[in-house]
Amino acid sequence: MRAAGQILIVLVVLAAVGAPWLAPNPPERSFPDALYAPPTRVRLLDQGLHAPFIYRQRLVSRLERRFEEDRSRPVPLRWFTGGRLATVDEAQGGPLLVLGADAFGRDILSRLLYGTRASLALALVATLGALLLGALVGGIAGYTGGLADEALSRLSDFILVLPAIYVALALRAVMPLVLPARTVFLLLTAIFVLLGWPIVARGVRAIVASERQRDYAVAGQALGAGPVRLLARHLLPAASSYLAVQATLLLPAFILAEATLSYVGLGFPSAVPTWGTMLQDAANVSLVSEAPWMLAPAAAIFVLVLAVNLTVQGTGRAPVQLLERSNRW
């Protein structure tokens, strides 16, 4: 199961990295005659076996959002054209909409691939920031003890008792609603790091406080090694397994947090493709029953969270022991 989870994670990362090449259309481009267009079926059979092709989708009723395939002429796929893996000649039968189109006629697959880049990058940067800050605070608290340990412990406890999602909503709500995408990225990263570092600090503090009593740490201190060297070279590396487990827990949590904030209109602007903004476009429940392809970002979130959980389940007993040790802090 762990191997299956790792394969899924690799596929998601490859999809994010290769988005400009894999996306059939620009994510921001709107096709006026393709509002809520259903997925384009890629075919191989038409009175015999052919190279992959599609039939042009013709808008029959704009009011009913009804489309029909024009089977009078097959439109072949064009491979490795214009820096894209597959596309079609729009003058003949475009556009190619593998996962259909949204309310503005934008390609859902292209937006999903580019949204993977934005959502995954935000979660990765926030996870790295939470791990670094948590490891630093937990290492200092576990090594020094005394008043510094008590102060840092109480600070982390205060943040941990707060309901994380409501704090994130409140912090974002006090900021201006309309912000550039880059500013939103930095702002959400800071909020997620602020809410994610305490649980990392708890575990690191417990591990460092235990390791600093061992013979190798005492010997290193007796030989003149300073606190920075002991922490960086010996004590913090002992917490590497715990940090790896926390990374696999924080990553999906931050992805869900970004999706939640964007869904309620406090995340990225709607023009920026992320999994959260795409779910906001699919918020009309009655429409989803007619256009289920609008839920593609929800399926992507499910796949990634499932992959991370499968990976965590296969990490063995050692991380569980580290979690139990941190809970006794």
Q: CATH topology of the largest domain, what is it called?
A: MetI-like fold
The radius of gyration computed from the alpha-carbon positions, rounded to a whole number of angstroms, is 25 Å
The main pleated sheet reads as: 3 strands, antiparallel
Please count the helical segments: 13
Low-confidence stretches: 316-329
Helix percentage range: 55-70%
Q: Helix/strand-derived class?
A: mainly alpha
How many domains would you count in the coordinates?
2
Physical arrangement of strands within the biggest beta sheet: 1-2-3
**What's the CATH C level of the largest domain?**
Mainly Alpha
How far is the N terminus from the C terminus? 32 Å
Notes on the protein architecture:
The chain has 329 residues and is mostly helical. It has two domains: 40-96, no CATH class; 108-327, MetI-like (MetI-like fold). It contains 13 helices and five strands. A three-stranded antiparallel beta sheet has the order 1-2-3, with no helix packed on it. It has a two-stranded antiparallel sheet with strand order 4-5. The longest helix has 37 residues, at 108-144.
SSE map:
Elements: H1 2-17, H2 19-22, E1 43-45, E2 49-61, E3 66-76, E4 78-81, E5 84-87, H3 108-144, H4 146-160, H5 164-173, H6 181-211, H7 215-222, H8 227-235, H9 240-263, H10 275-281, H11 285-288, H12 296-313, H13 318-327
